[in-house]
Amino acid sequence: MTGADDGADGVARAPWIPGPRRPADDHADLAGRPEEPDLTGRPEEPEAREPEGEEPDVPVLTHGVLKSLLGAWALSACSAGETAAVEAHLTECGPCADEALRLRDAVALLHRDRDLDLDPLLRSRVLENCLGRRPARIPVPDWVTPYDAETARLDALLRDIGESEWHAPVRLKWYEKDRPVRRKATVAGVIGHLFAVDGLVAGALGLDDPLGAGTPELSPSERTEAFWSALERPPGRALREPWRDQSHTLIRTVSFAGRGVADLTVTYKDFALPLRDSLLERAFECWLHADDIANAVAYPYEPPCGAHLHGMIDLATRLLPAALAGRRRAGLASPARGLVAAGAPGRSLHLEVEGAGGGHWYIALDSPAAVGDPDRAVAQVAMEGVEFCRLVAGRVSPEEAAAGQDGDREAIRDVLGAAASLSRL
User: Model-level pTM?
Assistant: First the structure.
């Protein structure tokens, strides 16, 4: 980092920082400004001058405003007048000049062909900082951000793997009727699975379904099998682009659609979710399958951030009472002990989730319409957040789940079994 030098007036001055290249008519006329030494090591270039009569107006801005424009300046998002004002300020303010250098170097890392090892979250942090300074006119709704984040993280991983790794074997696992089910796939096959099931959300929004018309009545597993069977050759890297385009289209469509779209129903054949929960469920599956892929290619992969993980756990706990009732009808859970009116408090299990995304949930045991009640808790289960998600995804069995248990053993067994039953291909 080049340091500031002292001008003749004793004021600390920073070296000139060349900004993003612009046409000559986008720069303010620097005539009459004291010449600063070029310490960047770059060869001198002829100074671009504005044609007479076409100077942009250079606004008089406070230090705070100029500092807030540094991110936009580094992304070439400032107007001509703002650019001139920022670049003039950088010759006089050492701290802002240092920050501008850091931001300009960070923008260079946003190039799509850069290696993932640099830092997969750097792009998100830079854009978040810039949008915080100058918010987007059509922001992504908060309930869409988990899906946005998880698809972006998976895409970063996919860009970083080689062609041959797209055919690496991936072992998928879930639970059906208390029995583990395993299926072999490839990295490309898993992306095809996400692409096919995301098509249910696309169809609900009136967008193109990758399986074509007449397939919404298929379950997620059936859609996946149909998509795999329709492929003429083993899938490879070519699947990444249509999957990513689809996820971008979903996010953009929902962001422009307005508030009411969150309650739109997405049907999964045997059950349905409002769009708000459906995209959270898709984010959950995207993370778990990204982890499957990372394990297959020996690549490190972190869980979602705490806030997103909390939302995923909350969705699972809201689905548990209905799942428990379904297992009871199938003879896979113990009978209800005391039905209550809809909305009334009932016998409950206290689920304490520890770590990132953790919290406390009270799960109604006897009726899906009942409300969990701390005063009527008959059992308690304590579990780490990621481990609970792995149970819900069918990666571990109820017996393998590392859980602290206390109270009614039958209720604990029923709830852990219901959690595993939420899993599917």
Answer: 0.69
